[in-house]
Write a structure and sequence with these properties.
The chain is mainly alpha-helical. It folds into two domains: about 5-130, no CATH class; about 130-265. The chain is about 70% helix and about 0% strand. The protein has helices spanning about 5-10, 15-25, 40-45, 50-60, 60-65, 70-75, 80-95, 100-110, 115-150, 155-170, 175-185, 195-205, 210-220, 225-240, 240-255, 260-265.
Amino acid sequence: MASNDNTKLLKKDLADHFLACAKLGRYLTIENDVRFFITDDFIKNSILHEAAAMAAIYSKDNLVAEAALMPLGGTLSTMDGNGREKYERLFELIKNETLSDPVRARAKNIIDSRFDFNEIRDLGAQLGSRISPARDRYKNFLTIIKKLIENDIKSKPFIEEFRNFTDNVAGKLDFGIYSFCLDNMFKNIKISKDVKKLLLIKLLSFPNLIRRELLSNLLSQPNQESELIEFTNKTLNQQLNPESVVEIILLKDIKMRRLSMDVINSLGQPNMAL
């Protein structure tokens, strides 16, 4: 990860940024909004504990939420006195308030173990055992994309490969990595418009939260092909209900810096935190 990304991860207002993401019902992003948080960010960087706690409570990605416990628990295992009591209360808060059932169960196990370091280490091992096969599957899918670019696979078989890939990694691959993969396909000028349109049609059947992030990414990409933008807007209006379309457009405008959270609140727009 680039050093300027690391600086962003360490800023004191990262916890406030996570809260803003949660209010919008979004996956957590780094502060400049250029990408989503992934598990590696908590394993390889010194994240402020307030931000890690926010991530454990509000992350829509269970893998990221579980990874956020690691810097918190690792610190607790070496603490005593008032500092330890503070973090014990923080874990109780996470257990009671988190949106993630796996995080709730894991936080309870850590509390019940009296913050035994072995419990924290086990969390890292279990995360790794789930993430590693999914990332291997992702690397395999990248070779399929390469075949598509080189015209060694046709559009329909490719879409079937995409469907299988999505089914295989659901809940096991960081959403940030999955999103990065989709974004790059939509940006790649060597991938035909027909394939991109078929991908778009597939995304319409995704859960609302995931669909909203991926389609607003497509619409907000700089220098995106006008024909694809036009097709996307037309398809959204034909296939989705008006409220879902408004949510996608609002999030697109936020990503393009046309709107802020404060403006959305002042407009009294439909709640996006679904």
